# Entry
Amino acid sequence: MMKKIFTAVIVAAAVMSCTSKNTVLSGIVPEGSDQQVRVMVRSLNLDTLVTPVNGKFSIGLPVDDKLMAVAHYDGKSAQLILDGSRVSIDFTSDEKPLCVQGKGANAAYAEYVRWNADYRNRYPAAPVE
# Structure
């Protein structure tokens, strides 16, 4: 049974590596940091750590524009849509909320996240009595 599961994982990895289109997530972290970037796609049960080299990291993720991934580093996080584009995250930024830089769906989503944060700051919820 274990051999069949292992074989299935190897075949799936080979198929994924043969497809030419991935969502490519890259970014920067403070140089010299020994922390890893955690990337998760809960719908796919994907939870992996990426080790930055010289303050930079990159990972290819599957394409499914109905799914989102989240990247965590040093208490900061940013979400991205797995739309097959190239996106980047600057974990050295003090921007709040931290958004990915990219085109297409990710650019539109980042614009929405910024708008929503601004709206919440301008119109805080009234206390519930």
User: Anything to note?
Assistant: The radius of gyration is 17 Å.
